Amino acid sequence: MADRSIQGGSRGDGIRTFAFPVEQSVCGVGMQVGVMDPDSDWHADAPVDRIHRIDFHIVMVFGGPVRHMVDFTEYEAKAGDVLWIRPGQVHRFTAPSEYRGTVLTMQPGFLPRATVEATGLYRYDLPPLLHPDATQLSALCSSLAHLQREYEDAATLPLSLHTAVLRHSLSAFLLRLSHLAASAATAAEQRAGTTFTLFREAVERDFATNHSVSAYADALGYSRRTLVRTVRAATGDTPKAFIDKRVVLEAKRLLAHTDLPIGRVGAAVGFPDAANFSKFFHQHTDTTPAAFRAELR
C-alpha cells in the first residue's frame, strides 16, 4: 500500500489514508492478489503498529492465527478465516510475521456498478471476519487461486482483454465471498431471534439519545427480564453493555475521524455534560477522550 494522502487527508483527523497503489499492480490494473508471508512486501509501507485508513478493499484469507483490529475491535482469526476490510474503515496490523495466506486488494471503480451491488461491496453492516466451513473455504480458495493465475498472466492477452478477464474472475470470487458474508449474518440473526434483532435495530437507531434498557424494553413491548435473557443469549452481554459498546464505538469514530471538540463528541452520543462523557469513556476504555485522540495523531 502507498500513502497518497497529506496527513489526515480531507478529513482533518490526523489518521493517514492509504490509496490503492496502482503503479505496483501488474499492468497497472485496479487490483492485486499475492502471498502474505514475512519474505514479501505485501503490506508495503503501511504502518504495522499504527492505525490507518484505506480507500480500497482488502480481503485476507489466513493460513494461520492472527489478530487484526478493524474499527477499534480486535478480531482473533484462525487458519481458514477470511477478513474483509472495506474502504474508509480504520484498521491496524499486528506483527507482519504473523500473517500467512493470500491477500487481495481492489480499487473502488474497478468493477461495474451492477457487480458492486450484486456483491454487496459496501455492506458495512456485515462483520469483517468470516468463518467459512471446509466446503466454502475450498470453493473460495479455488476461485482465488484462479484469479491469482489470471492476474499474474499478463502476457497471454492484450491489456484490455486481460483486464476484462480479471474483472470476471474477481466478480466470481466476490460473489462467493458476499454470499458467505450474507449467510453468516442471516444465521446470526436466526440464532439471536426476533427479540434481539428488534433490540439491535432500536439501539442502532436511538443509541445517541437513549441509553436506558428499561426504555428500550418498554418501547419494544418486552419485560426487562426478557430483554436481558435474550441479549445475553445472543451476545454474552447484558443489554446495558450492548448499548454502552455502541456508544463507545461511535465516540471513538468521532474522536478519530473528526475535529469536533470533545464536549460536542459527548453531546453527539447522548452526554450533554462533557465531564460525564469523559467519565463514561474512561470507565469503558481506561483512557480519556483527549488521550485516545492524541494517540491517533
Q: What order do the strands of the largest sheet run in, or round the barrel if closed?
A: 1-2-4-9-6-7
| Structural shape | globular
Order of helices and strands: EEEEEEEEEEHEHHHHHHHH
Helical content, roughly? 40-55%
Largest sheet: 6 strands, mixed
Count of helical stretches = 9
Structural class: alpha+beta
- Please provide the count of β strands: 11
- Whole-number average pLDDT? 88
Low-confidence stretches: 1-12
End-to-end Cα distance: 20 Å
What is the percentage of strand-forming residues? 15-25%
Radius of gyration: 21 Å
Kindly describe this structure.
The structure is a single chain. This protein is an alpha+beta fold. It has helices at 113-119, 134-152, 159-206, 213-220, 224-235, 239-257, 262-268, 274-285, 289-296; strands spanning 2-3, 17-19, 31-36, 52-54, 57-62, 66-70, 73-77, 82-85, 90-92, 101-106, 129-130. Helix 2 (134-152) packs across helix 3, helix 3 (159-206) packs antiparallel against helix 5 and helix 6 (239-257) crosses helix 9 (289-296). It is globular and about 65 Å long.
